[in-house]
Design a protein that fits this description.
308 residues, Alkaline Phosphatase, subunit A, nine-stranded mixed beta sheet, globular, alpha/beta, two-stranded antiparallel ribbon
């Protein structure tokens, strides 16, 4: 059974599922949190030089399996975290080795790729086999609770604001009786690269980009495609540099939010920080992400570990 609640004052949507079976003893020894800095590319993370986030462990340049939010999150939740790019290695051998890392993340022994069969989905496995309480809080509407990404979660919430990681922390809690798994999709690093303190009327407004999800089907009238396009000029490099600087500043802001997160989590908490994909700021004429084949849209930061 799925319970759906909607606050009268907002468009907030929360799905809650039954708690894990009480007869199954919790087996995971760690709480586990995956934090996705949406659209954050590797070199802007390096330029931001966050001091708190990097306390987790060594920063790596890795590569996303997809260039857009929805498919990337699906891959992440099947256990395919952003990958390195080793030469002369069979893919099957890489996957086998990479999945062994989940033993450290969960705090268990003997976990292998084959353990995910048949669901092939990390939240379902953690909930049904390891006794985790599984929760997700997402910022992007393309990940809303009606999408297939919402599988295996006890609760799944689309946040009121797309750029407020601090509001997620206010809703996080941890139990001593069973471990918790959290997926946090963080939107400050996504266009328009705004922090919660910045008034919305001061955000950059780019025609054809701002509100793209809301207006995705505006050109379809009566089931027919209407060509209402207009000639658009591309951005100047100055504008693109300013947008890149905004993402860098968003990461620096988030570094302070991570300090609060690190104070909040219990000692037995393992945290992975990465991105779903990168972003283009004018390289070879590209902006943004999605149907783009360019190194910078696949290069993402990756670091993880336990603080104590």
């Amino acid at each position: 059974m799925v319970l759906f609640t909607k606050k009268k004052s907002t468009e907030e949507k929360i799905y809650r599922r039954p708690e894990p079976l009480k007869t199954a003893a919790p087996k995971g020894r760690n709480n586990y949190i995956i934090i996705i800095l949406d659209s954050c590319r590797y070199d802007t993370f390096v330029a931001a030089n966050p001091r708190t986030i990097t306390k987790l462990g060594e920063l790596e340049k890795r590569y996303s399996y997809a260039s857009w939010t929805a498919p990337s999150h699906y891959n992440l939740l099947t256990g395919l975290l952003p990958h390195s790019s080793p030469a002369q290695v069979y893919a099957s051998e890489y996957y086998k080795k990479d999945f062994l890392k989940f033993n450290e993340r969960f705090g268990v022994d003997g976990f292998e790729f084959k353990n995910l069969v048949p669901q092939m989905y990390i939240p379902s496995f953690m909930r049904e086999k390891l006794g985790y309480t599984t929760r997700a809080m997402v910022s992007m509407p393309v990940l809303n609770p009606h999408t297939p990404v919402n599988t295996g979660f006890d609760s799944y919430k689309l946040m009121d604001s797309h750029n407020n990681m601090a509001a997620m922390l206010d809703e996080m809690s941890f139990s001593e009786e069973r471990p918790s798994f959290y997926l946090l999709n963080v939107g400050e690093t996504h266009y328009p690269y705004a922090t919660p303190e910045e008034p919305e009327n001061e955000w950059p407004r780019i025609h054809g980009v701002h509100g793209v999800f809301k207006h995705l089907d505006d050109h379809v009238v009566g089931g027919k495609i209407v060509d209402d396009s207009e000639e658009l000029s591309f951005f100047t490099q100055k504008q693109l540099n300013e947008l890149k600087d905004r993402q860098i500043e968003a990461i620096r802001y988030l570094d302070g939010v991570f300090e609060k997160l690190f104070d909040l989590v219990p000692q037995n908490t393992y945290i992975t920080v990465t991105s779903d994909h990168g972003e283009l700021f004018g390289e070879q004429g590209y902006f943004g992400h999605g149907p783009i084949m360019h190194d910078k849209v696949f290069e993402v930061p990756f670091l993880e570990g336990k603080l104590r």
